[in-house]
Specification:
The complex is a heterodimer of chains A (about 325) and B (about 375). Chain A is of the alpha/beta class and about 325 residues long. Chain A is built from 12 helices and 14 strands. Chain A has a 7-stranded mixed β-sheet with strand order 3-2-4-5-7-6-12, sandwiched between helices. In chain A, helix 7 links the parallel strand 6 and strand 7. In chain B, strand 6, helix 10 and strand 7 form a beta-alpha-beta unit. In chain B, helix 2 packs antiparallel against helix 12. Chain B has a 5-stranded parallel β-sheet with strand order 1-2-3-7-6, with helices on both faces. A two-stranded antiparallel ribbon of chain B has the order 4-5. Chain B is of the alpha/beta class. Chain B folds into 2 domains: about 325 residues, Thiamin diphosphate (ThDP)-binding fold, Pyr/PP domains (Rossmann fold, 3-Layer(aba) Sandwich), CATH 3.40.50; about 30 residues. Classes of the chains: A alpha/beta (about 325), B alpha/beta (about 375). Chains A and B meet through helix 3, helix 4 and helix 5 of A and helix 7, helix 8 and helix 14 of B.
Chain lengths: ~325, ~375
């Protein structure tokens, strides 16, 4: 089977969605002729026209606000926010309008809007281009939040997010955009909100999403050579969390390390640690340990490798968990 | 800085005031018909009477709601007093195919769209965040975040374009907001999106002179309708206390939008005669003389004078309207006080369209928690 990049996986998923439903639209900055700054929407405006793949004015709140209006009229807009750090001008429209309008309407209104956000660092970019704002959105009721980690998930999850009748914040790990993987078109995709066990192990569970799944898999390979068996879980969905998959793993291994690029403080790992402690208290051999960014703004690119969790920091946490 | 700022505010106020005369008016404060070179409205007598009836009834709903808030039956109420003509006139220009986005003071528009006043009161009583089906009335829910709905209206209008629903019998979108909202980024982004995409939308700004305690001079240095020029579409100011002019100007703008002519900004120049909401105290920031001046331009009185003077209605009509107003008031009062609270578990309803594991778990825990009290009470 041929190998494709995450960009291609997303692109072909978007293409399928546009083909399958005439109400699906793409809107954002530079998504038309340019195909997006990461080329995720490459060729889509050419093939589906300017009314369905819309280059918008450069205004993030305007993109989400008008997408809400289009959804009220029966459309299924897929909005691209060019970079993670540019989502904040749209924060009010996402949190106060997109997330709450269904409840406000007593269920009369459905807003199937997808907000795609390339997230995370590791590409040597300037300020505001490397952030991990997922916890802000996972904290907001009314939104669903997912993160893909590989080309096949990019291809399938974007289509599932688009057919979902709830607003979905869709995080794409930008440092993995150009990494290749199998598309696996013959296999039925996992449900959108399920976690996936990506490597079985017995000594410690490591849970991650987005770019950190690969780091954790690499860490598991190193650990294996050193005699420790790590179980790696790709969470895939951050709201809702698939606690069943996670807890059943922790009950087997007795230990959990969470890994994300976002700051540890009040990050996804904190919520997971609390829930796993409640659900697996008698199985835990060690406290849940969290690996993640520091409580600092994302540093300049020359320093980012000190900020981003890597194999060594994951293994250090695993060692500490195993030492209890 | 403070001294300079306030000096500037005074001069800005003066320059704004000098634009007062630049508006479309078809009915003077004295109740006399006025001519305008571009706009006219010639209706059968019964339509004039119907407009007057609307003005009276929406003012009555408003008065009852204020009283209900004072009695503790509503949490809050933003009065429309003084803005009846702007709301009724514009809303009566809307056709069944059009779609309307209100802010949160548009009780008069809600009335014209056929929304039950009790559904509006349910919002302010805290029974729901929105009590009507927007697609049934082509009237969106109230939006409290100032200006956010203006983008939704433009997006909806972009959808209308994609549905090829333009044309004389097509759809236009009408969106309401206030003078304060014109300072919001969302409103300016909405103007720009509408202009760039030539969206079939009419921006109806009720300039009621006050954004809570801040006067118009704190929002703008130019007349608001002139903002449209910079965005590339027409802006027009209408006497917001003249129901006839509001209807004529809005009807024309909606026609233009429906027929593919793009957006229009209408500034309805009016006055918030009451407080911002029932929690506000306007005596802290504005002079009684200003209110008195605007009372002389009351939208209801001029319409009544017109009907009287032009013999378009007799005492029996005015008596009927008064009776209907009393009946409506009684229904609003009794309907409000007898409105039941929702079931506690309604907290969890309609948050998501599809399943969400966390919500399911918390609903279950909450139900068990509530049930535990019922069991111990047995």
């Amino acid at each position: 089977m041929s190998q494709i990049t995450l960009v291609k996986g997303l692109n072909s998923g978007l293409r399928k969605a546009l083909e399958n439903d005439p109400k699906v639209m793409i809107m954002g900055e530079d998504v038309g002729k340019l195909g997006g700054v990461f080329r995720v929407t490459d060729g889509l405006q050419r093939d589906f026209g300017e009314d369905r793949v819309v280059d918008t004015p450069l205004a993030e709140s305007g993109i989400i606000g008008t997408a809400i209006g289009l959804a009220l009229r029966g459309y299924r807009p897929v909005c691209e926010i060019q970079f993670d750090g540019f989502v904040y001008p749209a924060y009010d429209q996402i949190v106060s309008q997109l997330a709450k309008m269904r409840m406000r309407s007593l269920g009369h209104i459905t807003l199937p809007v997808v907000v795609r956000i390339p997230f995370g660092g590791g590409i040597g970019s300037v300020e505001h281009h490397s952030e991990s704002p997922e916890a802000y959105f996972a904290h907001t009721a009314g939104l669903k939040v997912v993160a893909c980690a590989n080309p096949a998930d990019g291809h399938w999850m974007i289509q599932q997010a688009i057919t979902c009748d709830d607003p979905v914040i869709f995080f794409e790990p930008k440092r993995r955009y150009w990494e290749k993987g199998e598309l696996g078109t013959s296999v039925a995709p996992d449900p959108l909100h399920s976690a996936r066990l990506v490597r079985s192990g017995t000594n410690c569970t490591v849970a991650a999403y987005g770019s950190m799944v690969k780091v954790c898999l690499d860490a598991a390979s190193v650990a294996e050579a050193e005699g420790a068996s790590l179980e790696v879980i790709d969470l895939r969905s951050l709201s809702p969390l698939d606690m069943e998959t996670l807890s059943s793993s922790v009950r087997r291994t007795g230990r959990l390390v969470t890994v994300h690029e976002a700051s540890v403080f009040l990050g996804m790992g904190s919520e997971i640690a609390a829930r796993v402690t409640e659900q697996c208290f008698y199985s835990l051999q060690a406290p849940v340990l969290r690996v993640g960014g520091y409580h600092t703004p994302y540093p300049p690119a020359r320093l980012e490798e000190n900020y981003l969790p890597d194999v060594d920091r994951v293994l250090d946490a695993v060692d500490r968990a195993l030492a209890y | 800085m403070t001294v300079d700022g306030s000096a500037k505010a005074v001069s800005m106020g003066d320059s704004l005031a000098s634009f007062d005369s630049e508006f479309v008016q078809l009915l003077t404060p004295e109740g006399k018909r006025a001519e305008h070179p571009e706009y006219f409205l010639d209706l059968p007598a019964e339509d004039y009477r119907a407009l007057y009836r609307d003005l009276v009834l929406v003012r009555r709903i408003d008065a009852e709601a204020i009283a209900l808030q004072r009695q503790g039956e509503l949490g809050l109420w933003p009065s429309l007093l003084g803005q009846e003509a702007a709301q009724v006139g514009s809303a009566r220009a809307v056709t069944d195919n059009d779609y309307v986005f209100p802010a949160y003071r548009e009780h008069g528009v809600a009335w014209c769209r056929g929304v039950d006043p009790l559904d509006v009161l349910a919002f302010w009583r805290g029974v729901s965040h929105g009590g009507w089906d927007p697609s049934e009335k082509n009237f969106h829910l109230y939006t409290v975040v100032v200006g956010a709905q203006v983008l939704h209206a433009v997006g909806y209008a972009m959808g209308v374009q994609r549905d090829s629903a333009l044309g004389p019998d097509g759809t236009a979108v009408l969106v309401y907001f206030g003078d304060g909202a014109t300072s919001q980024g969302d409103v300016n982004e909405a103007f720009n999106f509408a202009s760039v995409f030539n969206a079939p939308v009419v921006f109806f700004c009720q300039n009621n002179q006050w954004a809570i305690s801040e006067p118009l001079a704190r929002q703008t240095r130019i007349p608001l309708y002139q903002r449209a020029n910079g965005f590339g579409f027409p802006g027009i100011r209408v006497d917001g206390n003249d129901v006839l002019a509001c209807q004529a100007v809005t009807a024309q703008a909606l026609r233009t939008a429906r027929e593919g002519g793009g957006p229009t900004l209408i500034e309805a120049y009016t006055y918030r005669m009451g407080a911002h909401t029932t929690t506000d105290d306007p005596t802290r920031y504005r002079l009684a003389s200003e209110l008195q001046e605007w009372q002389g331009k009351d939208p209801l009185l001029r319409m009544r004078t017109f009907l009287d003077h032009d013999k378009l209605a007799g005492q029996d009509f005015f008596g009927d309207v008064e009776r209907e107003s009393d009946e409506l008031a009684a229904r609003v009062r009794s309907g409000c006080v007898s409105m039941p609270d929702p079931q506690p578990s309604a907290i969890f309803d309609h948050v998501y369209a599809e399943r969400h594991a966390l919500l399911d778990e918390e609903r279950e825990q909450f139900t068990a928690w509530i049930d535990s009290f019922e069991e111990s009470a047995r």
